[in-house]
Automatic annotation (TrEMBL), chain A:
Species name: Microbispora bryophytorum
Residue ranges with Polar residues bias: 59-83
Pfam families noted in UniProt: DUF5719
Lineage: Bacteria, Bacillati, Actinomycetota, Actinomycetes, Streptosporangiales
Region (Disordered) residue spans: 56-83
Xref: InterPro entries: DUF5719
Name of the protein: Uncharacterized protein
Automatic annotation (TrEMBL), chain B:
Transcription regulation listed as a keyword: no
InterPro entries referenced in this protein's UniProt entry, alphabetically: Glycosyltransf_2 (IPR050834), Nucleotide-diphossugar_trans (IPR029044)
Key words, A-Z: Membrane, Transmembrane, Transmembrane helix
Protein's name according to its UniProt entry: Glycosyltransferase family 2 protein
Biased composition (Basic and acidic residues): 950-960
Disordered: annotated segments: 347-367, 925-960
Pfam families with a match to the protein in the record: Glyco_tranf_2_3
Length: 489, 960
């Protein structure tokens, strides 16, 4: 050994051999590239839901919580719960004795609300919360309010968008309600066809806990013919809804809440009935944009001739008549833009006296969707329009009646870039309304859709529409870890 | 007419006596009478006296006779001479100049009141060094010559001076005065008898003069312990101190005496403490014993005072003027501190004769020989130049970090470093508190590196960010200067040291440390060269180096436990290989390796329970999915071999190719193969550990083992570098080869510096981080209320709970109880999912008042938080969102803790630390040289050689 070290080449050789051996060890022990398994968010049933029906007076309120999904065992340990319907009240007010309590999931609860009174708050916990959906639908056959006007009861939130006609074209009313314990500092922003409208009267309002406000948008911005309305809170939460009354014989409906500004917006749930279709797009940002329009129809997906694009100046709204493109066809629209946009669509019925319905940009219903109100009485028809703009989709559609056992679910296949319209027919013998549960099957592409309710009356067709919203059945519980490094970006 | 009797008292002084006697007999003013006294010498001094003065003039006395006694004995037997008789007292080690007596007598004639006269005393060995020109005493009994230590005589003090006292060596005293004062006090057989006599003479109205024209050379053999003292069994130091106190207290008037007693009790205790700190327990004991001996015999003192009663009070004002002024004590303290910094013994034994406090010459570098000014000397040192260059490189590379650092609202953080907030006191509280309220609350003891950081922050005026910035951002120049200084004893060729230090400082590990915010490794790479230097001294048998190594290893281990493992394995191997060469090396190694274990014991037990933590260092670690931002998982084999630890901030692998090539070339040289082999052995060992570390845990960073490996390589290459100069001198092909090697060698640091500057030192380290707790949350939180920070990243939501302030360094290593964490994590997950329920209430019960999401908030998370009725959104913008819990928030009360064990351990740890600090700090250079009593002119053994070298060095220093 000593001689080896003292020999200069011996030492060099020794070191080189050792280095080679270490290289070999390091090379061999290098682990194979393992595909990182991302921790998946766990689906968990929602445990409490609060929703506000903005103006149920004279309307039928439907509340439903679909029965437990047998495919998901995680729901079994769900605590029993109940849903309470009560008039909105401040935290100090005692619970009234005449609150309706619903504690049976899997059955639709419906009730006609007497005229008068403010918003209704639906509070659900436990098993009744997972998937709770509620809606109010009014039906008038005469007067300015003639038509079917339905709206999904919304959860209070920090920001809502509405896209539709402006106060100059219709009587627009904003309903605000704050069922929380903290005051909501609400501000509005109206984007008209000429740009953002700055109201000199100030565009904010404070809604105290338990309070509700009804605001005529004409007071805020009298001139816009089309508009996108942003209702946001600087603090607190508010439930917002907008009703558009076009006038005697011209229809009435609520504007559904539109998806928040995004560069790709899908406007689903356009029914196959005849009539006008008018698209509203707004770009609330600071850049002009050209929005590319693609229609997803029953026979394919393509850009509409001469209506491939719509130019939207920065901070303003624009509209485009699509009646000749998608009129009479069940459809969804895919709008793409370089800057975030919001979009909505007006559906006009036919007849001497028209009724309108609105749909708006919506998210895909990955975790399923529930529509509370469906009708198939007399001349009323319920349609479900499902679209799969980005990949073939398979969904399970189930009706939930107000009495008796639910019929077996139906599997609906929507090929990629197609739209399918289903007529919802309740099982024989069931009375009254029903709810619709749509659950995409595992492996399905994103599903967008809407439910349309129409009724042929003698002087014109009554219409209301509601884009499918993600059901509040599931919440995705993200993997969560106590990590001191979270303080670093 | 004068008559002068010279009395030479000899005691084992044959070494000097011959010269002394010759000088006495050669006086220009012949002596009237000469008397020799032999106090029982055993070295033939008696014979020398007899030979010189004749048998009739020599008196033989017993061995225990003191100087004063001997003189008394002579004068008792000697009949008075006619005329004015003078007695000239001479020691056997005191050589008067031929004209000394003449000058003294002349001075005596000038001043009729002069009764005692002394010559100017110079050193025996170095004959130009002044020893005394009259002596005074301070109020604390300290002998004071008023001269600088080792002051050369250039005539600067010349003249006839009225002084408090003169030494008995060469003292000329009028015999009638002697008789009047009854001479030297025989109770003081040695030391301070002269002071006592002169004090009494002055009190009696006589004058004491020092005559600079009279010169004598004095060896101070007794004071310097060149001979054994037979008159007393006590150590000369204690004797000197005791006599000093005694003389002072015997001669002071009463008021001054009381003050003096108080002053001396206080001063002695203080001095004893200082001695203890300086690891001179013998000195401390002597100090206290001397004081005790004076105060403990009040009768003796009273008798002495009684004998000196006459005229004491009247003479006092005149005496007081001659005492050392009070300011001198401070000057001495300053000198002492200066001496301590210079590496000399920190406390100079009070009252010693100057030459006895001789500075050891060993450590003074050759630099001191140059006459150039201090500034020029500092800047022309290659080490300082290297440091400055590395600093400039570092500043340029860190150009993006500096603005944020200097602005008030930016926080340094990123990578493994939490945004640095808080100060030294916060860190200190974190270290000592039993229950940590921070985060979810924890009872675990804070890791020891928190204490180190608290200390560093305290040095940086309590600013933790400054301490962290200096250590972390400055680790490159610090590592450079550390490597340069540490190789001083290993490598003598300065260019090689510069290359070595520059290469070491710019290793991929070092740049990776800065970018990754790895404070722990930053400290270890600065300390690593010091470990190497200390380890070589431990191998040479130095015990103090062993304590120092233990202390610094403790610091390194506290930050990076792996450093201990590496040093311990190398130390064990060294002990097996070289332990037999020197006595005590094994024990020193045990000290060096055992100190960290003892000082960090409870924490090491924790580490041992979770062996995976050995591979990790202080600071934040990545876990699970996020691995890959701070380390490179699946680090390639060639990266490891090229000393690149992966992770952010490391240069491409080829940057270190030059270093490897040069180190391989060093293997081919014939001489000093052993050191090259050892260096490569360390390299291979470090590499092996690095491979193991990087393969076992993806979150572990093999920086420290690769720094070890690089150190081995650098020593192997640097040690052979002086051969370059030889090759260059030999010309031809060899010269070309040498040039090539130099180019290749310097390619590594230059390339590393260029790449570093190009890339920049930041990312993920940043200096512009905002405080993780939003200002609004900080302002509106009650004490104890927390802010929950959520950060969704790669599909997971990371969270951390902060109580009113951002997390401190070290808080990330605290582990809250498992069930608390699980409960809280479930609640946070529920909150982030937006599924409703009472999760917010659960959080509120843990004291969460605010929920903050920094950065642009993920829409899903924003929806989830907005959907919580109990959360009120306070703000939302591109820079983050803040929600406030609307309802009742209860801050959980701290649990009752039994902190006795922790407290006890902290005290024990502090005590042990102080002990190790004392043992490791420079103190008394060697043990008391007891063996030198005989002081044979030629000594055997290493100590003698060293002394010879010292003396030679001192001679060398005489200016021409």
């Amino acid at each position: 050994m000593r001689r080896l070290i003292e020999n200069r080449f011996g030492l060099l050789a020794l070191v080189l051999v050792a280095l080679g051996a270490l290289y070999g060890v390091a090379f061999v022990s290098r682990p194979a590239p393992a595909a990182q398994v991302r921790p998946q968010a766990v689906r968990a049933p929602v445990e409490s839901v609060t929703a506000v029906c903005p103006a149920p007076s004279g309307s039928r309120v439907s509340v439903v919580t679909p029965a437990q999904d047998q495919r998901n065992p995680g729901q079994q340990d769900q605590k029993p719960g109940s849903a309470t319907l009560s008039a909105i009240r401040t935290p100090e007010e005692k619970a009234g004795g005449n609150d309706d309590v619903i504690d049976r999931p899997g059955l639709l609860w419906q009730r006609e609300i007497a005229v008068g009174g403010g918003p209704l708050v639906v509070d659900a916990t436990g098993a009744m919360a997972a998937g709770l959906e509620s809606a109010q639908t009014a039906r008038e056959t005469s007067g300015t309010q003639r038509g079917l006007a339905g709206v999904r009861c919304v959860e209070p939130g920090a920001e809502s968008w509405f896209v539709g006609p402006g106060p100059a074209a219709a009587e627009m009313t904003l309903y605000l309600a704050n069922p929380d314990a903290a005051p909501a500092n609400v501000s509005f922003m109206v984007y008209s066809g000429e740009g953002p409208v700055l109201s000199e009267r100030g565009n904010g309002v404070v809604v105290k806990p338990g309070q509700h406000r009804v605001i005529r948008l004409r007071d805020l911005a009298p001139s816009p013919l089309i508009m996108a309305l942003q209702v946001s809170t600087r603090s607190g939460r508010v439930a917002a809804a907008v009703k558009a009354v076009l006038g005697e014989g011209r229809g009435v409906d609520w504007l559904p809440v539109a998806a928040a500004p995004a560069t790709r917006v899908v406007v689903p749930g356009i029914p196959g009935t005849a009539g006008q279709r008018e698209l509203y797009v707004a770009a609330p940002g600071e850049r002009d944009t050209v929005v590319r329009i693609k229609a997803v129809l029953e026979d394919g997906s393509y850009a509409l001739k001469n209506k491939e694009t719509i130019e939207v100046p920065a901070g303003s709204a624009a509209s485009l008549d699509l009646s000749t493109g998608i009129g009479g066809q069940p459809a969804a629209l895919v709008l793409e833009s370089d800057v975030p946009i919001v979009a909505g669509l007006k559906i006009t019925g036919t007849g001497a006296r028209q009724d309108v319905a609105y749909t708006a940009g919506a998210a895909s219903v990955d975790l399923g969707s529930v529509v509370a109100d469906g009708r198939a009485e007399g001349k009323q028809t319920s349609w479900l329009v499902l679209s799969a703009p980005f990949g073939a989709a398979v969904a399970e559609v189930q009706l939930v009646p107000s009495k008796g056992a639910a019929p077996a679910p139906v599997e609906v296949k929507v090929p990629a870039a197609r739209t399918k319209e289903l007529r919802l027919t309740p099982p024989k013998g069931s009375k009254g309304g029903f709810s619709v549960v749509v659950r995409p099957m595992p492996g399905s592409g994103p599903v967008y859709g809407g439910r349309v309710l129409d009724e042929g009356v003698k002087d014109g067709r009554l219409l209301t529409a509601q884009p499918l919203a993600m059901a509040r059945t599931w919440a995705l519980v993200p993997p969560t870890v106590d990590e001191p490094g979270a303080v670093l970006p | 007419m004068h008559s002068v009797t010279a009395i030479v008292v000899a005691h084992d002084g044959a070494r000097w006596l011959k010269e002394t006697l010759a000088a006495v007999l050669r006086q220009a003013r012949p002596l009237d009478r000469v008397v020799g006294v032999d106090n029982g010498s055993r070295d033939g001094s008696g014979a020398l006296l007899t030979e010189a003065f004749g048998p009739g003039n020599v008196l033989a006395l017993p061995r225990s006779t003191g100087f004063g006694e001997a003189v008394h004995e002579v004068l008792r037997r000697l009949p008075p001479a006619p005329g004015e008789e003078w007695v000239w007292l001479l020691h056997d080690d005191c050589v008067p100049d031929a004209h000394a007596l003449q000058a003294l007598l002349w001075a005596a004639e000038q001043d009729p009141k002069a009764a005692i006269l002394g010559p100017k005393l110079r050193d025996w060995l170095d004959r130009r060094v002044l020893l005394e020109m009259g002596v005074t005493v301070s109020r604390s009994g300290r002998r004071d010559t008023g001269l600088e230590p080792r002051e050369y005589d250039q005539g600067q003090h010349d003249g006839i001076a009225d002084v408090l006292s003169v030494s008995t060596a060469g003292m000329l005293i009028r015999r009638d005065v002697w008789d009047e004062l009854s001479g030297l006090d025989t109770a003081l057989p040695l030391f301070r008898d002269d002071l006592d006599l002169c004090w009494r003479a002055r009190t009696a109205g006589h004058r004491v003069l020092n005559v600079s024209d009279a010169v004598a050379w004095h060896a101070e053999a007794s004071a310097r312990r060149r001979r054994r003292i037979a008159t007393s069994e006590e150590h000369p130091r204690r004797l000197d101190r005791r006599n000093g106190l005694f003389v002072l207290m015997a001669n002071l008037p009463f008021g001054a005496l009381v003050r003096s007693v108080l002053r001396n009790v206080f001063g002695s205790v203080l001095r004893a403490l200082l001695f203890l700190l300086a690891k001179q327990p013998a000195n401390a004991l002597d100090e206290l014993a001397a004081l005790g001996s004076v105060i403990g015999h009040p009768m003796r003192l009273r008798r002495a005072r009684k004998a000196r009663k006459q005229g004491r009070k009247q003479g006092w004002p005149a005496i007081r003027r001659k005492l050392t002024p009070p300011g001198a004590a401070f000057r001495r303290l300053a000198d002492m501190v200066q001496g301590f910094l210079a590496g000399a013994g920190p406390v100079d034994s009070a009252g010693r004769h100057h030459a006895a406090a001789d500075r050891a010459q060993e450590d003074d570098g050759d630099e001191l020989l140059t006459d150039s000014g201090g500034v020029q000397r500092v800047f022309s040192s290659p080490g300082v130049a290297l440091f400055l260059i590395l600093t400039v490189i570092t500043l340029v590379a860190e150009r993006t970090l500096l603005p944020g650092l200097l602005s008030s609202d930016g926080h340094l953080g990123g990578g493994a470093l939490v945004p640095v907030t808080g100060g030294a006191s916060d860190l200190w509280r974190l270290y000592v508190e039993d229950h940590h309220a921070a985060g979810l609350g924890s009872q675990t003891w804070a890791p020891p590196y928190v204490a180190v950081l608290a200390g560093l922050s305290a040095v940086a005026l309590g600013k933790t960010w400054l301490a962290v910035a200096v250590v972390l951002l400055g680790c490159v120049p610090l590592a450079g200067i550390s490597a340069y200084a540490a190789t001083k004893r290993m490598i003598s060729y300065a260019p090689a040291r510069v290359w070595l230090a520059a290469t070491y400082a710019l290793l991929p590990v070092a740049t990776g440390v800065v970018a990754g915010g790895r404070l722990g490794t930053a400290i270890v790479i600065v300390l690593l060269p010091v470990y190497a230097a200390l380890a070589t001294r431990v191998m040479a048998g130095s015990r103090r180096a062993a304590w120092g190594l233990g202390l610094l290893l403790t610091v390194g281990t506290a930050f990076v436990p792996l450093a201990y493992v590496l040093v311990a394995i190398l130390g064990g191997l060294a002990a097996v290989s070289f332990g037999g060469i020197r006595r005590g090396v094994r024990r020193s190694l045990v000290i060096g390796l055992g100190t960290p274990v003892v000082l960090l014991f409870p924490w090491l037990v924790q580490i041992a329970r979770e062996p995976g933590r050995i591979l990790l260092e202080s600071g934040l670690h990545e876990s699970g999915l996020h691995v890959g931002r701070l380390t490179t998982p699946r680090l390639a084999a060639d990266s490891l071999l090229m000393l690149s630890p992966g992770g952010p901030g490391v240069p491409p692998v080829w940057a270190t190719a030059g270093l490897i090539a040069v180190a391989l070339a060093a293997l081919l040289l014939r001489r000093h193969q052993m050191i090259v082999a050892i260096g490569w052995g360390v390299m291979l060992f470090g590499l092996l550990v690095a491979i193991v570390v990087s393969r076992v845990d993806d979150a572990a960073w093999p920086g420290v083992p690769l720094a070890f490996a690089a150190t081995g390589l650098l020593v192997a290459a640097g040690h052979q570098a002086h051969r370059i100069a030889e090759f260059r001198a030999s010309g031809g092909l060899r010269r070309l080869g040498a040039m090539l090697i130099v180019v290749v060698a310097f390619a590594t640091p230059l390339a590393a510096a260029a790449l570093w500057v190009t890339r920049g030192a930041d990312d993920p380290l940043r200096s512009d981080l905002s405080d993780p707790v939003p200002v609004l949350a900080e302002l509106q939180s009650e004490p104890g209320e927390g802010t929950l920070l959520l950060r969704p990243k790669d599909g997971t939501v990371g969270y951390t709970l902060m109580r009113g302030r951002g997390p401190l360094i070290g808080e990330s290593d605290l582990t809250p109880p498992r069930e608390t964490t699980e409960r809280f994590t479930t609640a946070v997950a529920g909150l982030a999912s937006g599924r409703g329920s009472t999760y917010v209430q659960t959080l509120a019960a843990s004291g969460v008042r605010f929920v903050t999401v920094p950065g642009s908030v993920d829409p899903a998370l924003r929806r989830a938080l907005d959907s919580q009725p109990a959360l009120v959104r306070v703000s939302l913008s591109e820079t983050g969102g803040l929600w406030r819990v609307a309802g009742q928030v209860t801050v959980p009360p701290p649990p009752a803790t039994a902190g006795g064990l922790h407290r006890g351990w902290l005290w024990a740890q502090g005590g042990l630390l102080v002990l190790v600090l004392i043992l490791a700090s420079p103190g008394a250079r060697t043990k008391e040289p007891d063996v030198d009593y005989a002081d044979a002119p030629v000594e055997e053994g290493p100590r003698g050689r060293r002394r010879a070298k010292e003396n030679k060095g001192r001679k060398d220093r005489v200016p021409a």
